[in-house]
């Protein structure tokens, strides 16, 4: 079973702070790395799907990088807002997706 | 609107009874998945299907069964053989099982009493 690790498990930041989380995955037989945002009482929604080493993707104030050789991805949030509060999940593709336990972000106004 | 629908949102069953959770999608996706979430755990894969009339066991398939008779539907049956059935169940679909994003339903919370 593929092992995907996320850190930290939870995070509390003040509004306006920038923050980042880590996703670690086995670098052998890599296919793709997914990031999802899961807000309370909603369905998880895809943020990014990344496939190439060195990939950098951005959506608004959220961005992600990928290092497939060393097996990690970072998710960055610049200037966090209360509406960014959610659980952020990463998943590595191993036919099919294997998810980490997530990072729960709370942004305090 | 296209999407993926799970029903019901909440489900209560007595111990020893089988129960079936519904998952329907109108996205024309080939691949569908069932995940389970427990407190403090990530999403764990129960079963997945890459195409109609075919499905594969995931990491925690024991005590569960599925069918994929139609492209749009992937129901999950929680049988009495599942030792700890109380959990949150999420269904998802994707265009294929490769590097495309998954779309999720809103989940079913099953409580067995």
Helix content of chain B: under 10%
| Morphology call of chain A | globular
Helix content of chain A: under 10%
Proportion of strand residues of chain A: over 45%
Q: Using DSSP, what is the number of strands of chain B?
A: 11
Unreliable residue stretches of chain B? none
Biggest beta-sheet profile of chain A: 6 strands, mixed
Instruction: Name the largest protein-protein interface in this structure.
Output: A-B, 24 and 25 residues
The computed structural class of chain A is mainly beta
SS strand fraction of chain B: over 45%
Topology (SSEs and partners):
The complex is a heterodimer of chains A (109) and B (113).
Chain A: E1 5-7, E2 10-14, E3 19-24, E4 33-38, E5 45-50, E6 56-59, E7 62-67, E8 72-77, E9 86-93, E10 97-99, E11 103-108
Parallel strand pairs in A: 2-11
Antiparallel strand pairs in A: 1-3, 3-8, 4-5, 4-9, 6-7, 7-8, 9-10, 9-11
Chain B: E1 4-7, E2 10-13, E3 19-25, E4 31-37, E5 43-51, E6 54-57, E7 64-66, E8 76-78, E9 87-94, E10 103-104, E11 108-112
Parallel strand pairs in B: 2-11
Antiparallel strand pairs in B: 1-3, 3-8, 4-5, 4-9, 5-6, 7-8, 9-10, 9-11
Please summarize what this structure is.
The complex is a heterodimer of chains A (109) and B (113). By secondary structure, chain A is mainly beta.
Model description:
The complex is a heterodimer of chains A (109) and B (113). Chain A is mainly β and 109 residues long. Chain A has no helices and eleven strands. In chain A, strands 2, 4, 5, 9, 10 and 11 form a six-stranded mixed beta sheet that branches. Chain A has a five-stranded antiparallel beta sheet with strand order 1-3-8-7-6, with no helix packed on it. In chain A, β9 and β10 form a beta hairpin. The termini of chain A are far apart. By secondary structure, chain B is mostly beta strands. In chain B, the strands form two sheets. In chain B, strands 2, 4, 5, 6, 9, 10 and 11 form a seven-stranded mixed beta sheet that branches. A four-stranded antiparallel beta sheet of chain B has the order 1-3-8-7, with no helix packed on it. The radius of gyration of chain B is 13 Å and the shape is globular. Chains A and B meet through β5, β9 and β10 of A and β4, β5 and β10 of B.
